[in-house]
Write a structure and sequence with these properties.
The chain is an alpha+beta fold and 146 residues long. 27% of the residues lie in helices and 25% in strands.
Length: 146
């Protein structure tokens, strides 16, 4: 089982998610509003988030997720770029990798093609890669002494 997820994140300290959706011409898969709270006792959020997930049934390697992002089209990338250039939001394409089996070649390596990188550039987005390795060490480890 491969452990990759990819999503587009827009963060703003001045625009609510509905305003971001209006500017982009697309609805988010999830969003949080300025002033909303995670829990009743939490402080109000100082920024909004607008998230769109790249998902596919074909698998979850980056090369399977890449066509989903490219399918959002150059118009969305241009709209994101204008939003970033306005100073009203920051945009990130986030890739999360979880490695649970160190021997599984499907869980290793990240390839992002030039078309995706051009889309990210047009969107004025950062590329954030979060990697998590879940590995249990077997038995005692000899540290070479005593």
């Amino acid at each position: 089982m491969s452990g990759f997820r990819m999503y587009l994140r827009v963060v703003s300290e001045s625009l609510q998610p509905a305003e971001v959706s209006e500017r982009l011409g697309m609805e988010p898969d999830e969003a949080t509003s300025i002033g909303s709270r995670r829990r009743p006792q939490s402080p109000p959020r100082s920024q909004s988030t607008w998230i769109r997930h790249a998902s596919t049934e074909a698998g979850a390697r980056p090369e399977h997720l890449e066509p989903v992002v490219l399918g959002w089209g150059p118009d969305l990338a241009a709209s994101l770029g204008r939003l970033v250039d306005s100073g009203e939001a920051a945009v990130s394409l986030v890739l999360v990798q979880e490695i649970r089996d160190l021997e599984d070649p499907q869980q290793k390596g990240i390839f992002l093609g030039p078309d995706l990188m051009a889309w990210v550039g047009a969107a004025r987005a950062s590329l954030d890669i979060d990697q998590y390795v879940y590995h249990e060490c077997g038995g005692a480890t000899d540290l070479g002494g005593q």
